[in-house]
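Methods — Computational structure assignment.
A single polypeptide chain was analysed. Its primary sequence is given first, followed by the predicted tertiary structure written as structure tokens.
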Amino acid sequence: MELTRNDLFNSIKEIITQSRLRVFRAANSALLKSYWQIGKLIVEDEQQGKQRAAYGNATLKELSKRLTVEFGKGFDERNLNNMRSFYSAFPIWYALRTELSWTHYRILSRLESEEKRKFYIDESIVSNWNSRELQRQISSLTFERSLNKPKKNKISTNIQEYIKDPYIFEFLGLKPDHKFTERNLESAIIDHLQKFLLEFGKGFAFVASATYCN
């Protein structure tokens, strides 16, 4: 069966896209493993004794200088510390999910509990969160809020427990620990929309709602 020009284009596009995806995944996996192994070596070196640990920071600084001369950017002292934290948080290589990037793991390594890290790893993969969205979810305490959800078999008379998910309005500048009326929220949302539209410059008009103007 003869392919149309559009079918031919789409077929070639799919081949190129899948090929690039395989290359990216392979490169990402190799990068993660190299950083994990570097972190492992640093941690093991520091654990050789209290005296070694005492001047660990000086060792990292010297190591950073030599690696930067040899390999260029990417091996400054801060990133070496990130690699150390990465290994400390994820000491088992085969348990890592290589679908996530180094930036994801850099953020995840700062979390204090294994349970919390696992939660955000699973959610990042299922929901396809990029690193910026992952950071937003952590900042909005998604894990902590998930712990407060009622169990399915639990019977409660509290209507708040039947709300599937609370809305997150941090972009409105509202304090998360404060209760708001519907009118408060409406006013804040409309103010935000007005400022957003004004960013486009001329040619855009904003008409406030009747309830907002009263």
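Note: The chain has three domains: 1-95, 111-168, 169-214.
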